[in-house]
Amino acid sequence: MVISALERLAHRFSPARRFYLVGHAMRQGIPSINMSNMIKEVVSMKWLKAISISLFLLLLILMPVSSAKGADSLKSGFRLPSSAPTPHHRVIAAEVQRMNRGVVFVKTQEGTLRNFSIEEAKKEGISSLQKGDRLLLEIDEGNLIIDMQKQEAAAKAARSPESGTIGHPQTIKGALDSFDPLDRKVSIRLGSGETQSFEVKVPVLTKLNGVTQGAHITLIVDEQGRVKDAHKS
């Protein structure tokens, strides 16, 4: 009965404390306690504890993934925004500092230095640039330049920078018909059944990559007919 009572009492303590009780019992001349079973129990408890901790950590890692709401998973890890991203865009002023080997370097009102190619500026309708020219740059939620315009042109268009966008872009909704990231082309099927194709700007490629054919999307097309943003309809 002493042995049985001691064993029941031992179950209330930690593994280390149980070893102490076993040793104490043996010193008191009670050798009948099964030391082998006690060791196996302690070892199994340690493994159980390790497994429990591992499962808990795994759960913490997976929780953000499982709670992510309705967005198309993209191969690049990006997701197509589920609402119009324009409120997350900003328009900032910039001044040309220098030009070198086909690259334009500007300093923005935020104090940052940015650059883009002269070829890209021409595609945006800016035929020439020189040091001191002032521009407006539209920056998307990924902190990338998606549109630009000379300040005097923006003034003539009476477009306020507070609008979060440059110029007067078109909003086109429909189902994705095809997308070719190499040629930077996207085709969208309108509700009327008509299909329209557009050139895609580089910052938008990652947003469209992986979007399945037939998915309903909205394209923001600039005044030069190029897609500068995209999101879910």
From TrEMBL:
Residues 157-176 are annotated as: Disordered. It comes from Candidatus Manganitrophus noduliformans. This is Uncharacterized protein. The lineage of its organism: Bacteria, Pseudomonadati, Nitrospirota, Nitrospiria, Candidatus Troglogloeales.
